Fold this sequence. Notes:
Elements: H1 15-19, E1 28-29, E2 32-33, E3 35-36, H2 47-60, H3 70-89, E4 98-101, H4 104-116, E5 125-129, H5 138-147, E6 150-154, E7 175-181, H6 193-202, E8 207-210, H7 222-225, E9 229-233, E10 244-248, H8 250-255, E11 266-269, E12 274-276, H9 290-306, H10 308-326, E13 332-334, E14 344-349, H11 354-363, E15 366-367, E16 369-371, H12 376-382, E17 387-391, H13 398-415
Helix pairs in contact: 2-9, 3-9, 10-13, 11-13
Bound molecules: ligand 7TS.
Ligand 7TS binds near residues 41, 136 and 210.
Amino acid sequence: MTQVATTDRALPFDVEAVRADFPVLDQQIHGKPLVYLDSAASAQRPVAVLDAMDRYYRNNHANVHRGVHTLSQRATDDYEGARQRIAQYINARSACEIIFTRGTTEAINLVANSYARPQLGNTSEIVITQLEHHSNIVPWQLVAAQTGASIRVLPINDRGELEIDQFEGLLNDRTCIVAVNHISNALGTINPVNDIVRIAHQHGVPVLLDGAQAMPHTAVDVQALDCDFFAFSGHKVFGPTGIGVLYGKENLLEQMPPWQGGGEMILSVTFENSTYAGLPHKFEAGTPAIAEAVGLGAAIDYIVALDIERIAAYEQQLLDYATERLATIDGIRFIGTAREKASVVSFTLEGIHPHDIGTIVDSEGVAIRTGHHCAMPVMDFFGVPATARASLAFYNNRDDIDRLVDALHKTKQVFG
Ligand code: 7TS
């Protein structure tokens, strides 16, 4: 178990010990050992997360915040304890700034509906980028359509990097919010989020960071970033599906109206009027995903034990190795060659549709994602309908990369 793995940065990252913590990796697919290279879509879970959820259900489950009975108190402690640990991990000022959501998508929809929509009018503007996942495009389009606001898009260059020099020119006194991803899921580009926040704040504009791909690969300190909102998903950070987080600065969250109504989020209800609970519960209507929050807390503990700086250093080496090995394949075209990149290699093979690549490599036991990666504007920019994407996590090793390269050679033979 990795709980015993050392966090001494001087020692090499013990990927084999880490792999033993992930039972799902230990299986055959089509008679070959599984190589899982689709962690950007959803990562796998260590035993520590599975055990934490199992323990919770076996021993402590009841509804939260409503009973004086012992199980309800235990469940509440587990749920709120997870919130505390997440707050500490991303360096929020207070646990009340951590809102549990179903994931990144719901977190962004919350901000679009509760923060932005009430202040949007038909001259208002929302700034996003060409590099966004659809979940950081469509929620803004929905509120823009309801209010007459418009969306302005920061373009990218041929490497798949933001044209940051053009950013300031998109801001003006009609800009309501800037919403941008920290790390791109389709290309792996690490965006200059510190500059984006600084420049936006000089114009008095708040910034939402979509941190779905940043959380598994890089240290996140929301106070150092000074972002106003930060969204991420549990399942991409080695925790459960169905849970995610919206971090928001307390003064902004305080001013925002509840988005969904129901139990948990009220102080008092009459037919004439209701009053709302304080933060964070104002934004958590209904029975929450309690076991999932517990699992997410355990996932964060697991990352803390491994040390995110060591994870990032290991993954950078692995990404360099993957890029080097893949570059030896004739006919490969890398889509996204940003100078600052994390854990994703998107590519096409001349004359072979990405879906065919995905099918053949799967028959070799290698799982990659093929498609538009919910980033159609990125595909449009590069003039491709889809790419094949290998995405890495700290449980991948060089053998996984070699197996991918072999499977791609096989693909070329098949489509010869
Ligand atoms: N933002 C980014 C940057 C993402 O990568 C994703 C999911 C989301 C938002 C949405 O997250 P969800 O958990 O709410 O669904 N990205 C991917 C992907 O790259 N392949 O499948 C899902």
